[in-house]
Amino acid sequence: MPHPTETALPAASLLQLIWLASPALPVGGFSYSEVLEAAVDRSGVATESIASDWLADQLHLTLARVDLAVIAQAIPAWREANLPRIRQLNAWVLQTRESSELRLQAEQMGRSLLDWLRNHDGANPAHIDACARMQPTYPVAFALAASPLEAGVRDCLLAYAFGWAENMVQAALKSVPLGQSAGQRILARLARDIPAAVDSARQLLDDERQAFSPMLAILSAQHETQYSRLFRS
Fold first, then answer.
1. Most buried by CB count within 10 Å: which residue of 12, 90, 98, 189?
2. Whole-model pTM?
């Protein structure tokens, strides 16, 4: 039973939100390590403890300050049909992807999610068409997919962040490599950290969002030419 002061999320919206956050969604997230593979190769990410710290830092320093902050603003913009605001947010994401690899991921996953939306009920067809015309990035496309749901922005961000965490833990299992139990311990840590990251992201104003993570950008550029890769670059 929900707490008397809480409003239960309708089952259909809850299931749709879980679906959107699932690594099984055919958008290609599993094929990227988001630089973790390069960190294993070049920065000594070789143990469960170091991988856990790396991903926790990535959650707070990049995901919360970029993707989650954009989604927090893009969901209400889609709900209000504020297309100029959506275009502004999408352009900002494209401009702040600091390597061709990171930009490719944002663009490819955005297109794939938009293709998925075209075959499912929910999103406004006019909004889907408008999104397609602006070279959609994944955070903006995810906000479009989440906008029709009877879910608060915070719930949508929690789902997005947990889906990211699941993908990144799977990348760690393959590239460090780690066992399943280690992966579950890392996921548990990320799950504990996600609510604070989400709450921080929701408070960021336009001039407070930032994607400054120079070592991540350098490692991403190095991953593009890494001799042996499991993940896409």
1. 90
2. 0.93
